[in-house]
Design a protein that fits this description.
globular; mainly beta; disordered C terminus; two-stranded parallel ribbon; 5-stranded mixed beta barrel
Length: about 110
């Protein structure tokens, strides 16, 4: 899963038939635990929850995104699956090369503070 923030909405009047009725968001990625996403990278993700601009979300990609809709043939590669209320990060050991600070200080709370 990848943590991101909704920064906009995508409107498409002409689209592949399987996309009819789906809502799409522009999501700026905050990062992931595996370094799979670059901070600041922007993607389009199918909105399964009705999220709005400025909200922090969890995004899945690939076949997992298709499973959210229940159709392995749907042409999506990212889907919002959770609206994030809070993220805590601890003072434990960091992986080598990990960033020093939280991905988004406006929405994260450091444990023990």
């Amino acid at each position: 899963m990848i943590l991101g923030r909704v920064i906009g909405t995508v409107w498409a009047t002409h689209k592949q038939e399987k996309l009819t009725g789906l809502r799409f968001l522009v999501v700026e990625l905050v990062g992931s635990g595996r370094g799979a996403a670059e901070r600041g990278e922007v993607i389009v993700a199918m909105d399964a929850l009705g999220c709005g601009r400025g909200e922090m979300v969890l995004v899945v990609q690939g076949m997992t995104a298709q499973k959210v809709v229940g159709d392995a043939g749907i042409p999506i590669d990212a889907a919002v699956v959770a609206l994030v209320d809070r993220v805590d990060y601890g003072q434990g050991d960091r992986a080598e090369g990990a960033e020093e600070g939280p991905p988004d200080p406006d929405h994260l709370t450091r444990l023990g503070s």
